[in-house]
Amino acid sequence: MQPPPRKVKPAQEVKLRFLEQLSILQTRQQREADLLEDIRSYSKQRAAIEREYGQALQKLAGPFLKREGHRSGEMDNRTVFGAWRCLLDATVAGGQTRLQASDRYRDLAGGTGRSAKEQVLRKGTENLQRAQAEVLQSVRELSRSRKLYGQRERVWALAQEKAADVQARLNRSDHGIFHSRTSLQKLSTKLSTQSAQYSQQLRAARNEYLLNLVATNAHLDHYYQEELPALLKALVSELSEHLRDPLTSLSRTELEAAEVILEHAHRGEQTTSQVSWEQDLKLFLQEPGVFSPTPPQQFQPAGTDQVCVLEWGAEGMAGESGLEKEVQRLTSRAARDYKIQNHGHRVLQRLEQRRQQALEREAPGIEQRLQEVRESIHRAQVSQVKGAARLALLQGAGLDVQRWLKPAMTQAQDEVEQERRLSEARLSQRDLSPTAEDAELSDFEECEETGELFEEPAPPALATRPLPCPAHVVFRYQAGHEDELTIMEGEWLEVIEEGDADEWVKARNQHGEVGFVPERYLNFPDLSLPESGQDSDNPSGAEPTAFLARALYSYTGQSAEELSFPEGALIRLLPRAQDGVDDGFWRGEFGGCVGVFPSLLVEELLGPPGPPELSDPEQVLPSPSPPSFSPPVPTSALDGPPAPVLPGDKALDLPGLLDMMAPRLRPVRALALGKSVCRGSFHPVLLCLQGCGNRDNLKGGLWRTNCVFPTDASTTSPAS
């Protein structure tokens, strides 16, 4: 089976769609601006050549007709471009009667402004980008909650497998020589506890994912049904004010200037008057296809989890907060949004009245206040839509939403009614001074500030893997593209950055080659245990164990039991006895060979700590099942079947589940340089202590040392 395709993240997909919407909208606005420029240029030239013969007038209209023919097929008579085409036809027919309309055309050419159209476009584009940014933020929150949910499900499934395996061994009394039945029972109890904990975390992540899912869908629907049409309608209505007057003036000038072409001019006037901006907007929305609502987001179960509804936790609680607490928070927020909208509309009316009576120097400040109030109302509307969707989902899950919603809304309505009466009392006293309006604004700001307690909680931040980090290849992979890297089973890589899509990372091998590899084909040993695991397994607070080592210098083994490696090599350290003596030589594996080497020639790379009882490789429990996809088919029949897949897609914030899949290593200490007399002088030497077989000999001082001179390997000689 081939590796998984590179999926585009939902946030990127929505962002690309929004960028396409902006691009198409700007293209349309550019066409409309070009149309304004055409009308201005047309009127200016028309005024200059009205005194000329009709032949010159026909030549003038010809280029515009040809230019209009190259545009898109929006030739419906109810559109601006259809009316413009009819007007050009009327111009050609009445070329000889246009001499008296020279002054009118001159005035029309000076009245068509392009700067006003550009200002309207800039304002509308800013509002659209603001609305798109809010939707994109909701989609990103949905992506984060979905990723967290997938990670929690994989961790839970792995814990379930391990617990089932240990229970099966316990039932068969298959505890081997290194385990007793009591130890297996303790291990089974521990794994069962971990499984229950991860199940609760999975439930909380799933509930958060479902809530974000319905909220994002509601936000998207509100964007396509309410915000986007309103913004586009505002832009089109502004354009109509700049296009209707010039087109109507041109048509009326035709009627007054020439009786001969009365029929053509009358047709042009009717066409202009029949321009339907609603129809124009409808055709514009139907043509590109990108402004149509996107399909609602669907819940995507992760792994083997098939639960797709809100689920109650133990004692009616779900996750950490509980669904009932979530209902209380949402109903309080719904009441707050209701108050903000009602109060905001009342404040808008006061500010509109004040703007009409205010001086010119006060107008910018009032306009800024109006914009702030509109944005507050908009935020409350979006919050109300998302909250209603979440409450509907919670009510469908069996919670009595009306129990909290009715009292909250009743209280909010009473408060709104009380504020309305207070406002009417101010008006009845003819108190329209700035002091009274400032009081209204102060009340509105206080209403907004109280809503900070009901802000949506930010999703939990996902733990990130420190980069660069080492990784062990558990499956062979043959690169299929130029930017991918071929890897071999058992090889060590250095992951340098996350990939451009899920389940891919960029890594560097020992030869310095860089490329993308499937993340699930790797095993990352640099994850730490949860706090609970650290407290129970490492109570003494010992330093973490070195799992890997990087060679600082190249080394050639002096005997068959020593390991050779080049500079920069990644060496996997093998475990030593818990009560062993650090003799300056470590045991490791490199390139498929196992041997000892001087510890001063390498630097430690910290890896996962582990309990002492798992230091023996023979005590490793069976590996869990492979990931959801298998490795690619070998390129050659000699490669043989692939090895089992080790889970490489671990949850970054829930490490420690795979700690039993690798032997534990003990803390190591650097060995200092000693001194030895050789040929009458002192030389720094590396004392390599070699045990004589058992601890009694070591305690009795029966050691044998080898003095290795770093400057010249040939002078190595044993010393007692």
Brief overview:
The chain is 50% helix and 10% strand. By secondary structure, the chain is an alpha+beta fold. The chain has four domains: 7-302, Substrate Binding Domain Of Dnak, Chain:A, Domain 2 (Up-down Bundle); 312-462; 466-668, SH3 Domains (SH3 type barrels, Roll); 674-719, no CATH class.
Description:
Residues 607-648 are annotated as: Disordered. It comes from Aotus nancymaae. Residues 12-280 form the F-BAR domain. There is one protein chain. Helices cover 50% and strands 10% of the residues. The protein has 720 residues and is α+β, with helices and mostly antiparallel strands. The protein folds into 4 domains: 7-302, Substrate Binding Domain Of Dnak, Chain:A, Domain 2 (Up-down Bundle), CATH 1.20.1270; 312-462; 466-668, SH3 Domains (SH3 type barrels), CATH 2.30.30; 674-719, no CATH class. Strands 4-3-2-1-5 form a 5-stranded antiparallel beta sheet, with no helix packed on it. Strands 9-8-7-6-10 form a 5-stranded antiparallel beta sheet, with no helix packed on it. A 4-stranded antiparallel beta sheet has the order 11-12-13-14, with no helix packed on it. The chain is elongated and about 115 Å long. Residues 315-320, 452-463, 526-546 and 607-720 have low confidence and may be disordered.
Question: Which features characterize this protein?
Answer:
720 residues; alpha+beta; SH3 type barrels; coiled coil; FCHSD_SH3_1; five-stranded antiparallel sheet; 4 domains; lipid binding; phosphoprotein; cytoplasm
State the domain count.
Answer: 4
Task: Output the radius of gyration.
Answer: 39 Å
Give, in spatial order, the strands making up the sheet with the most strands: 4-3-2-1-5
% residues in beta strands: 5-15%
Looking at CATH, which topology of the largest domain would you report? Substrate Binding Domain Of Dnak, Chain:A, Domain 2
Highest CATH level, the class of the largest domain: Mainly Alpha
Q: Average pLDDT across residues?
A: 71
State the helicity in percent bands: 40-55%
Order of helices and strands: HHHHHHHHHHHHEEEEEHEEEEEEEHEE
GO molecular function: lipid binding
Keywords: Cell projection, Coiled coil, Cytoplasm, Cytoplasmic vesicle, Lipid-binding, Phosphoprotein, Repeat, SH3 domain
Subunit structure: Homodimer. Interacts (via F-BAR domain) with SNX9 (via SH3 domain). Interacts (via F-BAR domain) with SNX18 and SNX33. Interacts (via SH3 domain 1) with WASL. Interacts (via SH3 domain 2) with ITSN1.
Biased composition (Pro residues): 623-634
